[in-house]
Design a protein that fits this description.
single chain; alpha+beta; 15 helices
Length: about 425
Amino acid sequence: MWSNERGGSLNIRALVGGLFLLLIIGGSLGFIYYLAILKPEREEFISERERALERVKELLPEKYDEINPKARVVRGRLINRIVSARTLEEIKAVDLETETYLERSRTELLIEVEKEFKGPPGFMEKCAEEKNVLVKRIREARTVEELSEIDVKEVIAYCWRDYRMEQLLEVETPMVILVKREKGKAPEMISLPKDKALELINAYAKAKDIEGLRGYEIAEDLVATPLILDRRRAGGGIINEGYVVDVYTEVNGTKKAIVKGALVVAVIREDDSGSINLTERQRVEESGSLSESKSVSYEEESISESRNISGSESREKRKEYSVDLQEVLKAAAAGKTDPTLVRGALSDYGYDLSINEGLSDIGELNIRYLVVIVVPSDVAGIIDEEMDKVTLMPKPFHEFNDWYFQVMKKIGRGG
């Protein structure tokens, strides 16, 4: 009996030991399974979930919410789907790029509207309704296709066109001056007939060139600025009303533009050039057999002739001309002489003299010019302060600069 009990006890112990061993083996296998399969899967699941959540925030960041409230709604819905997912497959089934594309596209258009719809108060006021209509279309679009039909640049470009044309039509003169301003650069003026300005504005609108439409202002606050310059700094003296010049000053030994495309409206050459003294002499000797002498005088000419017995003959013709044009101008202004002389032969005397000097390679260099240029008022003060350093440089290819333009055409034709 004792042996039976002992045998039974051994069996129980063996059974318990076996069970314990099985538990150890099972636990080991389970642990191995966890380490080899479950843990990597869980880590991948968590990693993918975190990546997906970050991607949602990248595609639809919170900064979008202010301009596009729908972005917040879509972002919240996607985050809930990702957080609620129980498997890796459920997370991967969420196509973030596609499901955020509509709101991303909508937001980009709204941002473009805010970025491009900028201008002076007059523009913002005139085009406020167009902006509101455009924003409403973007917000109410239900598909990407509907958004793709909205051309923000075209709408804004034609708003600018209408605004600029309205400004141009208010200009009473046939000539219009546009001013282009860029940060860090000198203002650039463009002078052209009103019809050409309208064509330019239309061309910019068709090209959807918003920067071009925004950049060229219709110059309204212009002033005529007088400058007294020596010949070198006055465009070499070959300059006339209607010419277009760039205005430079000197800063630390370097030329710097103050304004480009300034319009010259008057040029007065120093009155030293108004005194004219001309004497012409001609002497002729001939052989002959007669002897006589003769003297004739009339107006500004005197002719004397003599013949002697030896048969030799000499003849001298002398012409003198002297006039002070400044006195002529005074007389014309006082009504003491024919004013048509000033409006005719003398109307471009100073300029014609400079042209003749340019053609003959001979001229007066030590003279001064009073040049009046039209510039925006905000740079007029700078030009006036810097007058001792200012240099006017005519644009050789500008059609208004007749002499330079003709010379460049001549050079281009080979002389």
